[in-house]
Amino acid sequence: MDSGRSSPYKSSMTLPFLKMHGLGNDFVVFDARTTPLELSLAAVRAVADRRTGVGCDQLIIIEQPRSPETAAFMRIRNADGEEVAACGNASRCVAALLMAESGHDGVVLETKAGRLEARRTPGGRITVDMGAARLDWREIPLAAPADTGALEIGHGPLNHPVAVNMGNPHAVFFVPDVDVVPLAEIGPVLEHHPIFPERANIEIVQVLGPARLRMRVWERGTGLTRACGTGACAVLVAAARRGLTGRTAEVVLDGGSLDITWRADGHVLMTGPATTSFSGRLAPGLLPALP
């Protein structure tokens, strides 16, 4: 190689990242604990683009903790660039990174939705306490008072969802067969329903048994994804509220299964894998999109 030319592989101006996923719900993860990182909407969209960027459902930035009792602050940006408060699968991924770094089997993360306690199970999976499920209409939030156990909304084959907030708003619809519902068409309509001032994640659920649920999801700001951790939590809470399951169930998503428990104190525990796919550096061609 001509030593007089700079190599894009060695550029100090590029940003290192990790590509991770939880059951196929994938993330580009940046560590900004040493050097702060501010990304514009355009920058996030450029990185998330699956044709010209790295490609991801969400972009995650690990920042310095706001409190000495926590290990780090986790900032979450959807593929459309908007910031959101919670992401269950990303929480497991970041927790796995921080536990590997510290050598401990437990960690506390900070998010805009609050603190999340995570621990490594004997089988190597990660359990995260996602906090208490919020069920009041003001907490979802909804645009007007309504029964969150059966909202008077619908579109096509989907009607009367259960509304749950797990750090972000969810509308859970129960159907006989999730595979025949055109979720890619219906999802964006319901995401933007006027009753949801902050939009909503849309889940469709099929009851497979008293402790097993099949779920598909349309995530606000992202679209169809193979898994959604907060969505799986919302689905279990919704099924238990309807009397369709107990307070513990396996939730089967397109990318695999999560074990969810809704404790008596209202907190929801999510257990599943966290996987690192590869590491890399953003090529200089993406840098013009950065601020």
Q: Explain this structure to me?
A:
The protein has 291 residues and is of the alpha+beta class. It folds into two domains: 16-126 and 274-284, Diaminopimelate Epimerase, Chain A, domain 1; 132-272, Diaminopimelate Epimerase, Chain A, domain 1, CATH 3.10.310. The chain contains four helices and 19 strands. The protein has helices at residues 41-48, 88-102, 183-191, 229-241; strands spanning 16-22, 25-31, 58-63, 72-78, 83-84, 106-111, 114-120, 126-132, 154-155, 158-159, 162-165, 169-174, 201-209, 212-219, 223-225, 248-253, 256-262, 267-272, 275-281. The strands form two sheets. It has a 17-stranded mixed sheet that branches. It has a two-stranded antiparallel sheet with strand order 9-10. The protein starts with 15 loop residues before the first strand and ends in a 10-residue tail after the last strand.
